[in-house]
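Supplementary notes for students who missed Thursday's class. We covered one full example, reproduced here. Read the sequence, then the structure, then the short commentary at the end.
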Amino acid sequence: PGLSNALFGKASWDRVIQKGVVKNLDVLCCGTVPPNPAEALNSHSMKEFIRRVSASYDVILFDSPPLLAGTDAAILSRSVDAVLVVVSAGRTSLTSLDHAAEILRNFGRSAIGIVLNNFNMRAAYGGYYGLIKHDDFNYGYGYTGSTYGHSKGNGVKPA
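Structure (token representation):
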């Protein structure tokens, strides 16, 4: 049982929220897929759920279906404070990303950032990924062969 079961009164909230899965992390699965998920996400019960859990938790993350797979994610975007778009390196095209941004705009939303999954640093940069300098900050992750870090062990080169 999960969110949909609680939204439709088939299970209590106490029963569907899995407490302490990891320290300081509770989990709520989606539950039984309803006949019309978009309608459930846009329901008064969903808005009440978000209001209720917002009073009890510091951060609430919703993992939704892809924006391009239907309207569920876009509908949910109207009920949350911020949207992060997850893309897959080498698979998500710029056209798809532009289309996702357009969908969010049509719902009066925009993404605050992008999470890049499946990025292969070794394939992208060869056997070494070095220093990136931006203004006063230096970021670096070094690796050669199968070991990570520089000989000094911090992975950051001096400027």
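Commentary. Residues 137-159 have pLDDT under 50 and may be disordered. The helical segments are 3-7, 13-16, 37-41, 44-56, 72-77, 94-106, 121-125. If anything here is unclear, bring it to office hours.
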